[in-house]
Design goal:
The chain is globular and about 50 Å long. The longest helix has 8 residues. By secondary structure, the chain is an all-beta fold. It has one helix and 16 strands. β5 and β6 form a beta hairpin. Strands 1, 3, 8, 9, 10, 13, 14 and 16 form an eight-stranded antiparallel β-sheet that branches. It has an eight-stranded antiparallel β-sheet with strand order 11-7-6-5-4-12-2-15, with no helix packed on it. It is 3% helix and 32% strand. The chain has a single domain, classed as Jelly Rolls.
Length: 274
């Protein structure tokens, strides 16, 4: 279970309430992870959770609700590992800040985009974090990161190579961890990923899922047909019991997550919609 820590109050964005789009709060449960070894995993590989196409016309949006006071919160969602190889990952990293990366060939030595924000999220309150990728031929791909109801206007671009698409391969997917021992300490819920070729995901698309801070099951979003995975933590069959439990995907992929080192009591009625 997550251990409380004393953290100084962070700076926060002033977030206006979102009033458009679907409005069905559903993320009222969450996974409470200990920051030691507890996480959830899909080992399907090719065709599994987060295995987006790598064509240069594809547009991707990933997001998750997080709550932490852990000194080093670490991995939120990772396709692959954070070293080599990894097509994409989303972190709350050193300093409690949002960090995201997309890689063209999966390796740190290849073309990649790596952006971060400056807001410390370790205030034990719910925050909505995510990233988008807009594929572009000839190295013209575009990346954005999102915090709560807004696209981050001026992220720190640690690495910003020209890219066209993201890597594919038989990688694992991890929620609340990765294959390198980086695990999240705190609560997670409402993890989703979407992909489409009809145009890039917009800030309005992100705000629809944010829903003024209450959180919603993105199955009700106007763009729900683009979902590749969605774990709203509101299914009757959800069970955090390690190895025998499952967290159910209601997105387009239909691949569930297997709990690792967790227990039934780590499934809490403490989500942003509770």
């Amino acid at each position: 279970m997550t251990k409380p820590r004393t953290i100084s109050a962070p700076d926060v964005y002033a977030i206006p309430a979102y009033t458009g789009g679907a409005s069905t709060p559903a993320n009222d449960n969450c996974a409470n992870l200990d920051g030691v070894n507890e996480h959830l995993r899909d080992t399907t590989g090719t065709g599994g959770v987060g295995d987006f196409s790598n064509g240069n016309t594809n547009n991707i949006l990933v997001g998750c609700w997080v709550k932490t006071s852990d000194a080093v919160a670490d991995a939120v969602m990772v396709r692959g590992v954070t070293s080599n190889p990894s097509p994409w990952h989303l972190f709350v990293t050193t300093g409690g800040v949002l960090f995201a990366e997309f890689r063209e060939n999966g390796n740190t030595s290849g073309n990649r985009k790596q952006y971060r924000d400056s807001t410390d999220l370790r205030d034990n309150a719910w925050h909505f974090v995510g990233a988008s990728f807009e594929g572009g031929a000839g190295g013209t791909a575009v990346m954005h990161i999102y915090l709560d109801g807004n696209r981050v206007a001026s992220p720190t671009k640690t690495v910003d190579n020209n890219m066209s698409n993201i890597a594919q391969g038989a990688y694992n997917f991890n929620l609340g961890g990765d294959n390198s021992g980086n695990v999240f300490g705190g609560c997670l819920t409402g993890a989703f990923g979407a992909e489409r070729t009809s145009g890039p995901f917009t800030e309005a698309d992100w705000q629809e899922a944010y829903n003024g801070g209450a959180g919603m099951d993105v199955s009700n979003a106007t763009w729900a047909g683009d979902l590749q995975f969605n774990f709203p933590f509101n299914q009757a069959g959800d069970d955090m019991t390690a190895t025998t439990g499952t967290i159910i995907d209601v997105g387009g992929g239909g691949v569930d997550l297997v709990p690792i080192f967790t227990e039934a009591g780590d499934y809490l009625a403490d989500g942003p919609g509770a």
